[in-house]
Amino acid sequence: MKIKLMTAVRAPVAALLVISLVVGLQACAQVKPWERGDLARSEMAWDPDPLASTLDAHIYFAKEASSGGSAAEGGGCGCN
Amino acid sequence: MTDFGLHHYRFKALGGPCELRLGGERANADRWSALAVDLLQTFEQRYSRYRADSIVSKINARAGTGEWTHTDTMTGALLDYAAQAFAMSDGLFDITSGILRQAWDFRSQQLPPQAELIALRAKIGWELVERRADAIRLPIEGMALDFGGFGKEYACDAVATLLRQQGCQSGFVDLAGDIAVVGPDPAGQPWLVGVRHARAPDRAITFTGLSSGGFATSGDYERFMIIDGRRYCHLLNPMTATPARTPASVSVAAEACLLAGTVCTIAMLREDGAAAWLDSLGLGYCLLHDKLAAEHDMRTALRLGLAVSTLPDVDQARLRNAFNST
Amino acid sequence: MKENSSSKALLALSAAALGIPGLATLAPAVSAESPPERTTISYAYTQYEEDDLDASKLAVGSRERYDIDVHQLGLTTALSDRYGFAVNLARETMSGASPQAISADVQGDPQVVMSGASIEDERLDVSSSLRRYNEDTTVGVNLGYSGEDDYTAFSGGLDGSLTFNDRLDTISGGFAVSIDTVEPTQQIGFDRPKSEDKDSLTVFAGYSRIITSVSQIQGSLSATRKSGYLSDPYKLNDVRPDERLQLAASARYRHFIEAADAAAHVDYRIYGDDWGIMSHTLDLAWYQNINANLQLVPSFRYYTQGQADFYEPLTGLNTSGERSSDFRLSPYGAVTAGLKAIAYGYDWKMSIGAERYISDADFAVESVDRPNPALVEFTRISIGFEYSI
């Protein structure tokens, strides 16, 4: 049981290492400032609709065991 | 430090000769020039009307179909600028007027038929262009945008800005006569810029100093034909669909090459009102009159009223030095 | 007079020139971090409806599960050229019954014991943030409050970002604390605590990078430590550890496809905690531009989790030690499919969307012997409106 416990916590850390490796290896292309027009589109944002994603996070927080990820969330709730 | 100096690069870009003079170490200057080439190529890919995959070609291909074309931030800003220039010029600076080139062939030595001009005239007018926050649509089939009237000048500024961001402190960018300064010459002095003699375009009629901003010239000698003693040049008035009766040339110094270029074009299209309008802007300019002859030098032209210049004078001693040393 | 209007026109032209990216000749700060240019007010209404519990899965109580109406109001604005401010309000009205325990029927199959009467509750959520924008960095302060009849949470946090390498790379990080109080509504026959506290601390860090002119990627890690009363006071025989360490690592990817005039979003998250739960979440969305004013966004989400170490498929199997039969701690998988349409105008945006969520033990990665019968399924419909000044 102790082993499983450790696996669960370690998995995200291991995953992060893989992710950072992938992110870090993308160093080759230097995208010039004037080539970033498409990246500035609203649909390319990390979070195009903040109101909707706040609610998404809230609902999944209330109905599933997992939370967290890319930013800190606000307080909890008593939702069941 | 041994290789610190002024480095010179020449290449073709945006359909014309490009010249870079960059002060600094050789390795840096080489890198900066490569960045400049890269930027100019990207710009050409995106905005050239000669390339089918450019944004401009995409917008033009959809003219009259009712379909919108998405405009990214940069394209939107360029269009906003064109809109402002249209307003400022009372409709003379119009990026939809490029289609008139279909009728006006300056090598033909012939005036186009009136009917053709009338047909084209109906497809010109920035006020007809429909725009939304991030999209544009041309309502009439055959209507077309052309960034040729200001794209090159913008690209010139963009290169200068980029090189400055990259650490270049001394140099300038010259795209077929449109100039943007990166920084003053290695001695900290303004660059000497020659104003082309409109009737002897391979000669300078005068010089001015430029240590920042941009400089541009518009002349009736670039593309023209003379029929029955009248000169028809490439600067077409969008209202009449015919060449404007422009001064021989207008050169302007401004905070940016883009502004200088737009002001030159508008001044030329204002015909006899050019000098008064330029005076009201408070920018340094040099206007050469249509009656100027090749043998006139600047002093004579000024005395005869064939030229007006408010450009800052260059110290004669410095001018002599510059020419003695080359 | 003429002179005046001409030079004004020249100023307007200079201003328009300045607006073009890459032309920073006149003002060097064009590419710096800056607060939102326009003030935006947004409103969204969401109707969230859980499916009634299947009659065959009900042991006793009401079959009706939660329905929630959510009104959200948001405001983002610049306070100066250096400060931005945002505030969000949410008001939820909930009604329905909730699962209290899992019992076995005559064949030994699990069934849900639901609360008898419908619960009515309201929740108010207020969150706000103040952010300072510098040349290459931003720093933000966040404050939040969430209140219900039986639950109050105060939260606050700090976060920051730094962009470098010609603005191709951005690192961000921060922390948040939340101080919560549970004051369960009492019911005769139930031994519920009067008032309990729960605190949490989250730290997170992220790294995003522009890969090409059409793609960018982000990796991040968050860690949350919760302590205090972490059990569910409304469930029978629910005793959980009073500490929980949660870790989540996520990767997000955005790719614009010029030929399709669409943007693809791929998000993945792996999560693990010291209660023994591990989960994977995959979020996919496709932002298809139909024309300049209309976007269609189909989306798909897959989620799967393993069970908590102390999870028991039937309530009361254990009478001592940590134990819970909450479906949220059970092993299962869930699928969400959604479709959203977004219409854009010059200064407004409207959206309408629908989503269906189903969860099942069969969707779990591992096979599950005794699925929890209380697993939830819901439908969500939302409309949103946004106006920028």
Strand content of chain C: over 45%
Roughly how many Å is the radius of gyration of chain B? 20 Å
Number of helices of chain C: 1
The coarse overall form of chain B would be globular
Strand adjacency order, main sheet of chain B: 1-2-6-7-10-15-16-17
Q: Examine the secondary-structure arrangement and name the CATH architecture of chain C.
A: Beta Barrel
What is the tally of beta strands of chain C? Answer: 19
The major beta sheet of chain C can be summarized as: 16 strands, antiparallel, barrel
Largest sheet of chain B: 8 strands, antiparallel
- Mean pLDDT across residues of chain C: 89
| Portion in helices of chain C | under 10%
**How much helix is in the residues of chain B?**
25-40%
Fold and architecture overview:
- The complex is a heterotrimer of chains A (80), B (326) and C (389).
- Chain A has 80 residues and is mostly helical.
- Chain A is 46% helix and 0% strand.
- Chain A has helices at 2-24, 50-63.
- Chain B is globular.
- Chain B is built from nine helices and 17 strands.
- In chain B, helix 1 (26-47) runs antiparallel to helix 5 (151-165) and helix 5 (151-165) runs antiparallel to helix 6 (257-269).
- Chain B starts with a strand and ends with a helix.
- By secondary structure, chain C is mainly beta.
- Chain C is built from one helix and 19 strands.
- In chain C, the strands form two sheets. In chain C, strands 1-3-4-7-8-9-10-11-12-13-14-15-16-17-18-19 form a 16-stranded antiparallel β-barrel. A three-stranded mixed β-sheet of chain C has the order 2-6-5, with no helix packed on it.
- The longest helix of chain C is centred in the first third of the chain and has 17 residues, at 2-18.
- Chains A and C meet through helix 1 and helix 2 of A and strand 1, strand 3, strand 4, strand 7 and strand 8 of C.
